[in-house]
Each structure stands twice: as C-alpha cells, then as structure tokens.
Amino acid sequence: MGTLKAKIIGTGSYLPKRVLSNQDLEKIVETTDDWIVTRTGMKERRIAREDEFTSDMGADAARAALDDAGMSAEEIDFILVATMTPDYMCPSTSCLIQKAIGATKAASMDVGAACTGFLYVLATAKAFVETGLAKNVLVIASEKLSSITDYQDRATCVLFGDGASACIVSAAKERKGLELSGITLGCDGGQADILVIPAGGCRQPASNETVENRQHYVKMEGKEVFKHAVRRMESACKECLELAELQEQDISWLIPHQANIRIIDAMAKRFKHLPPDRIFKTVHKYGNTSASSVGIALDELLKQESLQKGERILLTAFGGGLTWGAAVLTSTGDV
Ligand code: ACO
C-alpha cells in the first residue's frame, strides 16, 4: 500500500468557442478595455452556448484527457468533479459526466471548493490511488460561470469565463507522467462572506424576491479577496515545497490560479529564483475560470513544452470559502 505513487498520466481541457472581448463588455456595462486590461490583465474570455452546460464541457475535457492517456472510459473507477456551477443541485455533475462518457464502472462525486477545486480533487484522487481505493481516477474541473455572473455588475462581470479541465490520476508503475510529490490544502471559513452566492441554497431558496434582488449571482468584495489571494497562495506554495523537501530553485514552472494579472505579478515578486517567463499565464485570453483555471493552464503548458525527467511544476490556487492550496508535480519522463 505504502509504495503506490499517484501521478497524472494524461491531461485535457475544453474552452467554448464564443469569445467575449473587453470591447463586447463595453457595450454591456460602463467599463473600458483600458480599465479591464490595467486592473485585471484580461482581454477576452470564453462563454458557453446557452445549451452547453458544465457537464458537457467537463465531458469534453475528460475525453481529451482519456485520449491523452491512451485509456478508455471503462478503465476509470472513480470520477471527481470540482465545480461551483453544477448542472443541478442534485444529481451531481459527476454522475452526468459518467453517463456522457460511458464510464460505466466508475463511482462519482462532486467537490465544492470554488477556485481551489482542481487542487482539492487532485488531493482526493491522490489519496484514493495511494491507498488502493481506486486505480484510475478521472479528475475534472468544469465551470459555467456565465450562469452565475451578474452582467449588470461591472465589478464582477468582466472577470469570469467558462471552461473545463481534466486529468487522469493513476498509480500504474509502468506509466510515465507527473508524480504528485506534495499537496497542501487550506481553508478559512471565517471569511466565507467575502465571496458568496447568497440565494439558491437552503438558507435562501429561490423565490420571486431572491430573483428580483439578483441574489443568485456571485457577490465578491474584490479588494479583500485580492489581499487574501496573494498571501494565501504564497504561504501554500512555501508549505508545499517544505512538505516535498524542495527549494524554490527546484521548480521549473509556477502555475497560479488565473484570477487577475496583478495577483499573479504580486506572486511572481515573492519567487525570487523563478524567471517571470516561467510563470504560466492564460488570464489574458480566458479570464478567471474558477476551479478549471489551473487545470486548463497545466494542459496548455504540457502541450507547448516538453518536460525533462525530474522537472517540476508548482500549482497554486485560491478561492471562495476561503480555500487555497498548492501542489508539486514531478516529471517521471516524457510528459
Ligand atoms: N470598469 C470600470 N470601473 C470599474 C469596474 C469596471 N469593470 N469595476 C469597478 N470599477 C470601479 C469601481 O466602481 C471603483 O470606482 P470608485 O473608485 O469610483 O468607487 C474603482 O473602479 C476601483 O474599484 P475597486 O474594486 O477598488 O478595484 P480594484 O483595483 O480592487 O480591482 C478587482 C477590482 C479586479 C475585482 C480586484 O479587486 C480583484 O481582482 N480582486 C480579486 C478577485 C479574485 O481573485 N477572485 C478570485 C476568487 S474568485 C472565485 O473563487 C470564484
């Protein structure tokens, strides 16, 4: 049992085709391309079709990850989906994806950790494969944030985009991949109210009043979130490196949650040994895709760059809850 080592053996992602540019947003709310670029680094983001849902995007990303791993859906025995925009309150989105991809032998569940979701499901997958509870876990993060975004609120509507990411986590000894060398997770429920969707749960079930008051959309105290984001991601990274007995110099790439270029730049300043071009960014073209963000960036990085054996990627994320986390991935060759 103790010898099993979890690794990512395939990745995939899905982005909807429709592009929502800053110029498009200028026509919807009182904003400017200049304000959005300066304050967030975002130029455009992707928006799902009306008939395209979190489960559809998640299934597409999952198919891409299975393909990348050279695996069939029947070989998956557990599906984990991170999302804050599920298709339904019940059943879970993971069940819908299980059916869509034909993973008939897989148990499945959803995990809610807002923008940190990908790291929470990655940690869960690691625990399952390293204890022998599962062999091949399909990890998915998928978000249709456009469905909870208030396009009358200029402070939030410019930030969010839709998309999905996925990876296969396995302990199969014969497979090369990215070993999950260390993962750390954290939470501060005392700050729950700085990022919240007030209605739609049992505290405020849907009513005419909640709809009229726009309570089904995400509300965020941007400045507060910003402060916590930089601090928490930095400390999560340091804790994770320590756990894996590594130094900053041992890292080839840092992939932070793509929430805001200023958050990413503030993070970069705290990593003195990592050149700026080693901090991977997608925020300019996809905006903040919440749970999907680091997984989308990871998939893009792996499709663009080939990692030598022993090279390492550090992932970090932060989100509502508040939640945060970091993970070190080590290449075992030919990724
Ligand atoms: N266009 C033009 N002006 C705007 C816009 C806009 N889109 N949005 C806000 N403003 C105005 C405000 O009204 C304010 O005007 P005022 O000074 O006259 O009152 C001014 O710009 C400054 O507003 P701030 O909110 O102070 O702007 P700030 O520099 O803090 O940037 C932002 C706002 C981009 C939201 C930033 O705070 C941020 O990125 N926060 C973190 C968000 C985040 O990381 N989220 C991650 C978690 S998300 C999740 O878990 C789903």
What does it look like?
- It is built from 11 helices and 13 strands.
- The protein has 335 residues and is an alpha+beta fold.
- The protein has 2 domains: 7-175, 3-Layer(aba) Sandwich (Peroxisomal Thiolase, Chain A, domain 1); 179-331, Peroxisomal Thiolase, Chain A, domain 1 (3-Layer(aba) Sandwich).
- The protein has a 9-stranded mixed sheet, with helices on both faces.
- Strand 4, helix 4 (93-101) and strand 5 (107-111) form a beta-alpha-beta unit.
- Helix 3 crosses helix 4 and helix 8 packs across helix 9 (261-269).
- The chain is globular, with a radius of gyration of 19 Å.
- The mean pLDDT is 96.
- It binds acetyl coenzyme *A.
- Acetyl coenzyme *A is lined by residues 31, 35-36, 39-40, 114-115, 154-155, 158, 195, 222-223, 225-226, 229, 259-260, 263, 288, 290, 319-320.
Can you describe this structure in just a few lines?
Helices cover 32% and strands 22% of the residues.
The number of E-state strands comes to 13
Question: What is the CATH architecture annotation of the largest domain?
Answer: 3-Layer(aba) Sandwich
The number of helical elements comes to 11
Strand neighbour order, sheet with most strands: 5-4-6-7-1-8-13-12-11
Helix/strand order: EEHHEHEHEHEHEEEHEHEHHHEE
Strand content: 15-25%
Q: So what's the overall shape?
A: globular
The average pLDDT is 96
Rg over alpha carbons? 19 Å
Question: What structural class do the secondary elements suggest?
Answer: alpha+beta
CATH top-level class of the largest domain: Alpha Beta
Major sheet details: 9 strands, mixed
- Kindly state the percentage of residues in helix: 25-40%
